[in-house]
Design brief:
Blueprint lengths: L4 E5 L5 E5 L5 E7 L5 E3 L7 H6 L8 E2 L5 E2 L3 E4 L2 E4 L8 E2 L12 E5 L2 E8 L10 E9 L4 E10 L3 E2 L3 E2 L2 E2 L14 E4 L1 E7 L5 E7 L11 E2 L9 H6 L3 E6 L5 E7 L5 E7 L3 E5 L5 E5 L5 E3 L4 E6 L14 E2 L5 E11 L2
Antiparallel strand pairs: 1-2, 2-3, 3-4, 5-15, 6-9, 7-8, 10-11, 11-12, 12-13, 13-29, 14-28, 16-27, 17-20, 17-22, 18-19, 18-21, 21-24, 22-23, 23-29, 24-27, 25-26
The structure holds beta-D-glucopyranose.
């Protein structure tokens, strides 16, 4: 497995490692309230680890289509398309050989790394040649900024995200994320079925275990018997974010270390996934097995299965248009 590794550092000593394989964010070292650095991003010691264990999509760029497309089928401009089924009867995260498994062209730039990929027409069944640029920048404000751009030579659908899992106690600490306080600035979420495909209904978070409008520990209600939670085996839903432009959509506080994570995005949705399918069958960069609840992902995105839901924000990209999206993971500490 050949992959280049890039190291981004900033004035405050934060360090982020990025691989050209999958455009993977391999590690994010940030200080706790006493200044002690720890890696807070789940992953593996080398690229081979990711190739051997692609299932969790640790740290990877997801494309062409983040999250699920029902039955792997959609129509666009009257033509029907099929993409691989790799999640029961549905397609997940771009198919069998998504962007998480490609070797990206990568070059270091001031404060960051620029990754590019040309996905040929018909790649995993998606139409149009798609040229993608993803730029990771580590700023002196302790932000990992991700800028996505894409252009196509034929109409297609695109939904790019990053699949980093965080554990602010530090990977290998032996602690799960259930004590992290999660806040998501969203009034609604997408109702899903047993295959985690949206019904099309936006349900209010009010009165449910998905209400994170005020900070609540991830573990406080994760064993709720509400139908939506049982379907996901925990949190695995798309929150419908209000507002527009680059705005704060979530904030996480880990009370013991004091580490905080604030998420800003231009996207209309965010999948909060509580690592429900990590099953302890392999270990990673912390030297310990990854088990259920050892990390959480906040995947900023357009809505799952949007190509089959005309009422959802559109994921269609046409020649002459440029897909643009920005997400910021801002790290900090609280006293
Ligand atoms: C999905 C989960 C899936 C996970 C890792 C998340 O984005 O919503 O259902 O298990 O990615 O594959």
């Amino acid at each position: 497995m050949s992959s280049d590794q890039f190291e981004l550092t900033n004035a405050n000593g934060l360090r982020v490692r990025v691989l050209s394989y999958g455009g993977i964010v391999q590690s994010i070292e940030v200080p706790d309230r006493d200044g002690v650095l720890a890696n807070v991003a789940l992953g593996f010691a080398d690229a081979q680890g990711y190739a051997d264990h692609p299932g969790p999509y640790f740290g990877a760029i997801i494309g062409r289509y983040g999250n699920r497309i029902a039955k792997g089928r959609f129509t666009l401009d009257g033509a029907s398309y099929s993409v691989p089924l790799n999640n029961g009867p549905n397609s997940l995260h771009g198919g069998l050989s998504g962007f998480d498994r490609k070797i990206w062209d990568a070059r270091a730039v001031d404060g960051g790394v620029v990754l590019t990929l040309v996905s040929p027409d018909g790649d995993e069944g998606f139409p149009g040649e798609l040229s993608v640029t993803v730029t990771y920048t580590l700023t002196d404000d302790d932000e990992l900024r991700i800028d996505y751009e894409a252009v196509t030579d034929a109409p297609t659908v695109v939904n790019l995200t990053n699949h980093s899992y965080f554990n602010l106690t530090g990977v290998g600490s032996g602690s799960d994320v259930y004590g992290h306080l999660m806040q998501i600035h969203a009034d609604g979420f997408l109702e899903v079925d047993a295959g985690l495909i949206p019904s099309g209904e936006i349900l209010p978070v009010e009165g449910t275990a998905l209400d994170f409008r005020s900070p609540v520990a991830i573990g406080a209600r994760i064993r709720s018997d509400e139908a939506q939670l049982l379907l996901g085996g925990g949190y695995d839903h798309n929150w419908v974010l209000g507002g527009e432009g680059l705005r704060e959509v979530a904030r996480v506080v880990e009370p013991v270390s004091g580490r905080t994570l604030t998420v800003l995005t231009t996207e209309p949705g965010m999948q909060f996934y509580s690592g429900n399918f990590l099953d302890g069958t392999f270990a990673g960069s912390g030297g310990l097995a990854y088990r259920q609840g050892d990390g959480f992902a906040l995947e900023t995105q357009h809505f799952p299965d949007a190509p089959n839901h005309p009422s959802f924000p559109s994921t269609v990209l046409r020649p002459g248009e440029t897909y643009r999206s920005t997400t910021i993971y801002r790290f900090g500490v609280e006293a």
